Amino acid sequence: MRVGIIGAGAMGRAMARRAALAGAVVLLADRGAGHAAGRAHRVAREAVAGTPGVVEAVTPRAALRPGLVILALDRADSLEFLRRHRRTLTGKVLVEVTVPRAEPRGTQMRELMAAVPGARWVRACAAGDAESIYRGLIDGHPVDVFVAADDDPAKIRVIELVDRSGLRALDAGRLDRAGVLDELTSLGREISHRLATPEGWAIKLLPSW
C-alpha cells in the first residue's frame, strides 16, 4: 500500500510511523520548501526506524499521487491546501486526522469536505495525542482510533491500515459523527492539560479485545 501524508508536524510524524509499521510505502511532505522540507526529511528518518515499511520525504505534489492521502495539518492550513489541489484530490480517499482548536468543530469538517466534494472522505479520530499514537500503546493497551465515513470501501481501507499498524480501529459510523469525534478528542486534550500528563494521553473504550 502507498500512502501520502501532508504535514510533518507531531501528528504527521505519528501517522508516518503507524503507516510504516503497517508495511506501507509512505510519501511524506510538509507544506512548503526550505525549513519545512528539511523537517520532512528528519521526520521520515525517525518514523521509519525499525519498521517494515518505507517513509520518503517528498514534495507535496508527489505526496498526492497515492490513492489514499492523510491530512495532518491544522484545519485552516488543510483548507487552503485542499482548495489549491482540488482537481488532483478528486476521487482519492482523503483521511482527516487532526483535532480542531476552535469552534464550531463539526462545521470545520464540513468545510474541508466542501473544498473537495469529489473525494472519498474519512474521519479517522485517534482517541489520544500524537505522542501516544506514535508509541502505539497507552498503559499497555493499543490506542483506539474511531473511523467514520459515508463511503464503506474507503472506511474499510482505513480500518485495515489502522489495525495493521498496531492500533485498534473502531467503526464510528457515518461522517455526521465527525463533530462528536472532534469533541471527544478536544475533551481528552483539555483534561490532559489540566492534569499535566507528560507521558501523553488517550481515551480508551473498554473492554479491550
TrEMBL record:
Keywords of the record, alphabetical order, are: Oxidoreductase
The answer to whether the entry has keyword Oxidoreductase is: yes
List the Gene3D superfamilies. Answer: NAD(P)-binding Rossmann-like Domain
One Pfam family name is: F420_oxidored
UniProt cross-references to InterPro entries, sorted A to Z: NAD(P)-bd_dom_sf (IPR036291), P5C_Rdtase_cat_N (IPR028939), STEAP_metalloreductase (IPR051267)
Tell me which stretches of the chain form a coiled coil: none
Q: Which residues form the Pyrroline-5-carboxylate reductase catalytic N-terminal domain?
A: 2-100
Name of the molecule in the record: NAD(P)-binding domain-containing protein
Tell me which species this is from. Streptomyces roseoviridis
